[in-house]
C-alpha cells in the first residue's frame, strides 16, 4: 500500500495529464457530430475486420470436419437416390431411372471414410496415403472412391495408414466401360497431365460419342459396375489399328483430393477369392497336362 501511494505521489502530474486527455477526447467525440461520426465509422471498420478475420480462421480450422461431413452426406444422398430410382423403376419399368445417381450401386456396401494425408501427381508411379489401416477394416485390393468418382485401389495396408495406387499410376489397370454402350476396355495413365487417362481395346465397331460417361465395368473384384470415371474427350486409333484408344477426361480432381471412401464389401471379396482359386486351379491343371505321362 505504501508503494502504491509513493507511485501515485511521484507520477501525479502524468496521471492528471492522462485523465484530462481522456476526458477531452470523450467530450470531443460525444458533443461534436463530425468527430463522433469519424470515430463511429473507424470503430466499426476495425471491429468488422477483426470479426471477419476471426471468422476466416475459424472456418479454416473446421474445414476438415466440414469436408468429412459433406462426403458422408453425399454418400447418403446417393443411397437415397438409388432407393427412389429403384422404387420408380418398379412402378414404371423404365430402365433409364436405374442409371440415376453416381453412387446408386454403393447403397448395399460398407464405405469406410478416410482422409488423404499424402499425394503425388508429378511421377510416373504416383501413390496416395490415407489415414485408415487394418484396424479400421482396410484390406488390400479394396476400391477407393471420392465424391466425384474413382480414385484407385488399396495397395499396401498398415495398422493406421494405407497406400493407394491411384488412376495416375502407370501400374493402374481398371476395367471400364462406356455407359449405355456395352463396350469395355482397360484404363491406363500415360503420364503428363493429371486429368486425362486412356481407355484401350475398345472395339472398332463400337458406336459412341464425345461426352459419353465412362464408368467401371464391374468385370473385376475391386469395383462394382457403374462407378463414374470420367467422360469421353477424344478418340484415337490404337497402334495396331485394330481398336480404338479413348482419351478420358477424369472426373476426380487429384490435385484437390482430400476425403475418400474405401469400398468394403464381402461379395466383392468373395468374388475375388473365387477368381484367384479358379486361376490357381487352371494353372495346376495346365501344369498337369504339360507333364509327360509314364
From TrEMBL:
<keyword id="KW-0812">Transmembrane</keyword>
<dbReference type="InterPro" id="IPR042175">
    <property type="entry name" value="Cell/Rod_MreC_2"/>
</dbReference>
<dbReference type="GO" id="GO:0008360">
    <property type="term" value="P:regulation of cell shape"/>
</dbReference>
<protein>
    <recommendedName>
        <fullName>Cell shape-determining protein MreC</fullName>
    </recommendedName>
</protein>
<feature type="domain" description="Rod shape-determining protein MreC beta-barrel core">
    <location>
        <begin position="116"/>
        <end position="263"/>
    </location>
</feature>
<dbReference type="InterPro" id="IPR055342">
    <property type="entry name" value="MreC_beta-barrel_core"/>
</dbReference>
<keyword id="KW-1133">Transmembrane helix</keyword>
<dbReference type="Pfam" id="PF04085">
    <property type="entry name" value="MreC"/>
</dbReference>
<dbReference type="InterPro" id="IPR042177">
    <property type="entry name" value="Cell/Rod_1"/>
</dbReference>
<dbReference type="InterPro" id="IPR007221">
    <property type="entry name" value="MreC"/>
</dbReference>
<keyword id="KW-0472">Membrane</keyword>
<keyword id="KW-0133">Cell shape</keyword>
<comment type="similarity">
    <text>Belongs to the MreC family.</text>
</comment>
<feature type="transmembrane region" description="Helical">
    <location>
        <begin position="12"/>
        <end position="31"/>
    </location>
</feature>
<dbReference type="GO" id="GO:0005886">
    <property type="term" value="C:plasma membrane"/>
</dbReference>
